[in-house]
Amino acid sequence: MYSPTTRLLTVLELLQAQGSISGPVLAEKLGVESRSVRRYITMLRDLGIPVESEPGRYGAYYLRPGFRLPPLMFTNPEMLAIILGLVAVRHLGLSGALGVESVTAKIERVLPEDLRERVRAVQGVLSLDIQSQNLTASETLIALLTASAYQHTQVWIEYQGAGKENTQRVVDVYGLVFHAGCWYVVGYCHLRGDLRIFRIDRMKQVKPLETTFTPPEHFDPLQYLWESIATIPNIWPIEVLLMTTLEDARRRVPRDLALLEAVEGGVMLRCFAGDLDWMARFLVGLRCPLRVLNPPELRDELRRLAAFITQIAIN
User: Fold this and answer.
1) pTM of the predicted model, to two decimals?
2) Strand pairing class (236-242; 203-212)
């Protein structure tokens, strides 16, 4: 059962989280009558917290705009979640401009001794296999591009392509993705008139523009990146029927390696490969029944691999 102090803090948290909330809704969430809600609001005002109210049947309580609430209080699991997030940011190489070290130090100073030791244990023994590639120099760009995606404002970039040529483009930034050690921007390129993926470390200059754009609804930058990488043209177009369910195939096949589609008889795997020997070994490693549809040369590679495995098994 809530204590009066807990209810008071709950009212403050609800006002902060929801912006405005009616008296009846507050009473329902607290499990009290409406007159008790009015008493809690009066107590908050007596503490110097400017709680405003809209009169009338459909009125509501809200905090005065611009008011800064006292420091938030977190439970032990919430505090550990924050620390885990800070550890992940540090491994991404973003600890400089984002102030990870100073934030961690401030949190540790106010923690109870037992929780402080748990936090230090997490930082001391936790390892994340997240490899970054010179991300420190990109912190300012990441912040700028993130703001552009959030505010739906275009950016002008000077970009160095894979062939080392530089081009100037206007881009609608739909989102940023961290994948396989690199940061990517996914968005609409006005130079090419189509969706494109840009590596942030290849951006030589970035300038925010005042022009705005409307992003497509329900667009998933990460899914688009996976599908784009999986369909990069290479020497051998691959088509393999996996005799399993789509759910099982997704557990076995990395999302950026191939496109998967549920079809009659199983799941169609489509991708491109530059090395059929590697592809044969990968398919065998899936440990599921399959049928190679294309190319025929992949079947030959599987036969050679099977003969090799048989030979070493006998020996």
Assistant:
1) 0.58
2) unpaired
